[in-house]
Every structure is written in C-alpha cells, then in structure tokens.
Amino acid sequence: AQKITQTQPGMFVQEKEAVTLDCTYDTSDPSYGLFWYKQPSSGEMIFLIYQGSYDQQNATEGRYSLNFQKARKSANLVISASQLGDSAMYFCAMRENTGTASKLTFGTGTRLQVTL
Amino acid sequence: EPEVTQTPSHQVTQMGQEVILRCVPISNHLYFYWYRQILGQKVEFLVSFYNNEISEKSEIFDDQFSVERPDGSNFTLKIRSTKLEDSAMYFCASSPASGATYEQYFGPGTRLTVT
C-alpha cells in the first residue's frame, strides 16, 4: 500500500478563493509527522507546514492550514485567499520513527493552478 | 537564516561518466539525506547518513552510488558511471534530529542531465 496518497493530480482555483489539497497516509507507527512542501517551476522544495501525530490542534501557518483527521488518516492542506504565486506543485510527505534517520516519504503531488 | 546549499545547480554529463554532487548542510545538523526527483514524478528517498555512515538506503541506491562527508561541512553524492535514467533533480536535505517531528531542510537541488 502507498504510504502517502494524493488523489488530485491537478487542481484549479480562482484568485482569492480557498482550495483544499487532499492527502491520506498509511502508517502503523503511533509517532509520525506530516509535512507539506511547495515546489514552484524553479524546482526548489519549500516547506509550508507541519503536523505532528500527537498534536491536538490543526497546524496553521499564515494562509496555510492543515485539516488533520487522525482517525481517517488524512492531512489535507487548505490554502486560503489563493494568490497567483501559489501556482505550483504541492507535495504531502510523512516522516515516521523508523530507522536511524527517519526518511521522508512523499506523495505524487498535486499541481495547483491559480486563475484570475 | 541558515540554509542548505547545493552545487552545481545544473550538471550535464555523458553516459558512463562519474559525477559528484555537492551539498553543504546546515552547520549544527546531524542527519543528512539525498533524494531524487525524476522529471514529473514524486520525490524519492535515496540515502540517509548519520555519524559518518549510511543509516538507511533505498533500492535505488545501488553500487554505482556512494556518499561521503569528506570534511566537517560538505556532504557529497557520487554516481560512478552515469546512465540516462539517472537524469533527475537531486535534493540534499539535513535535519537536527531523527525524530518524526523534526523538519528536514531541503537544498535548492542539482539538476543532472545525462546525455
């Protein structure tokens, strides 16, 4: 089974509207972290937001918030008031407490296009 | 703010040649990683490095790959005999700790093109 599933290959949103990017995950580890990264066309990976498995509240960072539903194993990214600069690939990733160094496992990404 | 740096930003090489991709992790970080992203695909883990040795590697990281921390600041990925399918963006990352709650800080990537 895939560890991280992003079912939306592409999404469109109008400027100033909110958009939700879906992410579900699969782990049996009780301690894990969920991360969202933005990858613009220039290629770099930009960290957006983090949610820990034991966090009681949903993470927020400015216009980004994470809708964390632990029982459903979902960690959807919500971008409010979309801007043209938000057009990019968005990757959901998970880090488990496995191995010495705990690698990140990424989903396949969602390409977001913000329109006027 | 400290950041991970990578050089070169773009490397073009011929099939069969050796390449070395260089990374300077954040100075007080202890865990180092290489990831690969083939064009249009997801980011894949290659290898993690801690305490001067490999702590985990993926099935992609075969005998043609090696990593080294030659001094206190650099972290390198060597591909001994490049193949066409090694063409990808290679990301270095570092982390202060290994726990699941710690962020991994990514460098800007090196785009490797094998012709």
Give a verbal description of the structure:
- Chain A is mainly β and 116 residues long.
- Helix content of chain A is 0%, strand content 51%.
- Chain A contains no helices and 12 strands.
- In chain A, the strands form 3 sheets. In chain A, strands 2, 5, 6, 10, 11 and 12 form a 6-stranded mixed sheet that branches. Chain A has a 4-stranded antiparallel sheet with strand order 3-9-8-7, with no helix packed on it.
- In chain A, a hairpin with a 2-residue loop joins strand 7 and strand 8 (64-69).
- Chain A starts with a strand and ends with a strand.
- With 115 residues, chain B is mostly beta strands.
- Chain B is 0% helix and 49% strand.
- Chain B has strands spanning 5-7, 10-13, 19-24, 31-37, 44-50, 53-57, 65-68, 75-79, 88-95, 105-106, 110-114.
- In chain B, the strands form 2 sheets. In chain B, strands 2, 4, 5, 6, 9, 10 and 11 form a 7-stranded mixed sheet that branches.
- Chain B is globular, with a radius of gyration of 13 Å.
- Chain B starts with a strand and ends with a strand.
- The A-B interface holds A 29, 31-33, 35, 37, 43-45, 47, 50, 52-53, 91, 93, 95-97, 99-109 and B 31, 33, 35, 41-45, 48-50, 55-56, 89, 91, 93, 95, 98-106, 108-109, 111.
